[in-house]
Amino acid sequence: MADKLRNRDEIETEFKWRVSDVFETDAVWESEFKRVKLEIPSLSDYSGTLSESSDCLLTFIKNMHAVEESLGKLYLYAHLKNDEDKAVSLYQEMYDRCRALFVEYRQTIAFFEPELLAINEKDLRCYLKENIELTLYQHYIENILRTKSHTLSASEEKLIALSGEVMSAPAEIFAIWESADIVFPDIKDENGNFVKMSEGLYGRYQQSPNRTLRKDSYLSLYKPFI
Mean per-residue pLDDT for 24-30? Predict the structure, then answer.
């Protein structure tokens, strides 16, 4: 009989992610989630103003990046907690809410690139020269200018942003099923003892000098999908 795979609460602390460095508790995450959700709609207030002055453009970019940074932290925490155990519905819900909030954010700022590209490039270069703080984003802005021929209208960009959650759903459903429900066949180690197989252990087995173990671990990993 192979040794069972250990549950997360059986793993030594030094081998676990210290997600408290991102958010101390779920409650703190929830509070930040609510704050960011309330802040996102305010970004749409800048629509139609970006060409007014270098200060208007700078203010929007700074606020947009601040929201995106906050979203990144929310997503990181929810993603890591969800990856700890796909069977825990609380963290699956937090992760799904994060993804939905990111779609809302992308939808809200869909006007940005088309509006930036509508500014006369000569005027945009003047903005970069006259506003020292805006030059911090010069490379970022120039990268957007390079994609001008591939950028859609604001309404079309918004439509693409709305489709993000739907398009990623099949992959997310597969990941949950694969992590929570799949049981891989046991295999024998170098000493002939039955050992458990998992995606996490696969890399270790593949580094073994024992060819049979490498082969059996490969077959065990893919057998549930055949």
Answer: 98
